[in-house]
């Protein structure tokens, strides 16, 4: 198993290119199951989750190949197997995104129930509500969701839950509705840029989706969808992680190919903390003065502050000059990183879904354990600024969602090495 060994203290300086969005690419890959003919998708990051999704697509009869120019070519060659197995869906919850396309195109789907993960329970009741509204029959068999629907019919459905809408639930319902007969209206749809990107992709295939980016999606069903070419949006969470890396190391980092318009809450929060964020042509430049102000951060559905940057923001606020309150309104249990940051000398007190972070003068390097993708990124950020050596174990979590993070950080001047556990003993 690989680990990162980080020697803290380097100021990051230089330019980093932001890759394509993981959370846009994965549902778009699943959506190719709807197409008749090949799809070519550009700007798909080379990540563990993308490889897992490629494997799943392969089992479902699609051929997925990386072209010499880096684009992913996906063509469905046969449709006999519609079973997304537990072994794959349990590795990557976005596997649930094949449910809507399989049901719509093949009239049946069997997809393993994903189950919980390190960030909380993560139910799928809203996905099922969306598909049932279109007329699907759904039952649970041996831990699998079995969905059938000879004919899907357009309908109105409300996808709000106790924590707001659902991103992949909106994706599943929208994808299924593209081939339903009649018009579907999704109320309380997720407004995330990844949903807009998926709607743009579906429309490029010949679908008729309008309203994406707002809470009301209208989908007029069509008979068939064709293959198309498409480029995925930049990853706003990778971009935010590098912005925080610049701020926490008191550095100056230019992001290329980033979409600042997708990051209004993050930019606002970083500016309140004291970072300087300037838009540049095709990206942004982030630098920081020495002093970090405390702020209160509440994670919310888009356009609010993203839960996927909560842990990284916490690492930064550990060094602010005062108390910050970080409240998690999407995943109230997404705080596993707190215990690891405490091992590095942070001062954090948890009260329900809120963490009170009292800034300390410095963090101190320590061996820490990655528990989920974004928590691991937070530990890397803390390691970059900590005094001495930090080892982050189980970095396979970070490889799920960040492409070569250590190489990108090294290019900015960070002292970070990937070593195999065995080599380091
Ligand atoms: N929820 C329900 N019922 C459902 C679905 C969700 O109650 O049927 C609840 C969840 O428990 C949560 C909230 O609704 O409290 C929002 O969950 P959502 O369904 O939007 O999350 P998701 O679609 O499973 C995506 C991202 C996550 C990101 C969340 C929130 C992908 C592949 N994953 O998950 O990304 O945290 O939206 O923005 O798009 C990550 O990249 O590290 C990651 C976890």
Short description:
The protein has 425 residues and is an alpha/beta fold. The chain has helices spanning 22-31, 48-59, 86-89, 99-106, 125-133, 167-177, 193-204, 236-248, 264-273, 310-317, 336-343, 373-385, 396-399, 405-411, and strands spanning 2-7, 13-17, 35-36, 39-42, 62-66, 72-76, 83-84, 108-112, 137-141, 144-148, 156-158, 183-187, 208-210, 216-220, 225-226, 229-231, 252-256, 275-280, 283-288, 297-299, 323-328, 347-351, 354-358, 367-369, 389-393, 415-420. The chain has a four-stranded mixed sheet with strand order 24-25-1-26, covered by helices on one side. A four-stranded mixed sheet has the order 2-17-19-18. The protein has a four-stranded mixed sheet with strand order 5-6-4-16.
In terms of topology, how is this protein built?
Elements: E1 2-7, E2 13-17, H1 22-31, E3 35-36, E4 39-42, H2 48-59, E5 62-66, E6 72-76, E7 83-84, H3 86-89, H4 99-106, E8 108-112, H5 125-133, E9 137-141, E10 144-148, E11 156-158, H6 167-177, E12 183-187, H7 193-204, E13 208-210, E14 216-220, E15 225-226, E16 229-231, H8 236-248, E17 252-256, H9 264-273, E18 275-280, E19 283-288, E20 297-299, H10 310-317, E21 323-328, H11 336-343, E22 347-351, E23 354-358, E24 367-369, H12 373-385, E25 389-393, H13 396-399, H14 405-411, E26 415-420
Parallel strand pairs: 2-17, 3-15, 4-16, 7-8, 11-12, 20-21, 24-25
Antiparallel strand pairs: 1-25, 1-26, 4-6, 5-6, 8-10, 9-10, 12-14, 13-14, 17-19, 18-19, 21-23, 22-23
Helix pairs in contact: 1-2, 1-7, 4-6, 5-6, 6-7, 8-10, 8-12, 10-12, 11-12
The chain binds uridine-diphosphate-2(N-acetylglucosaminyl) butyric acid.
Uridine-diphosphate-2(N-acetylglucosaminyl) butyric acid is lined by residues 23, 26, 93-94, 122-127, 161-163, 166-169, 190, 194, 307-308, 330-331, 373-374, 401.
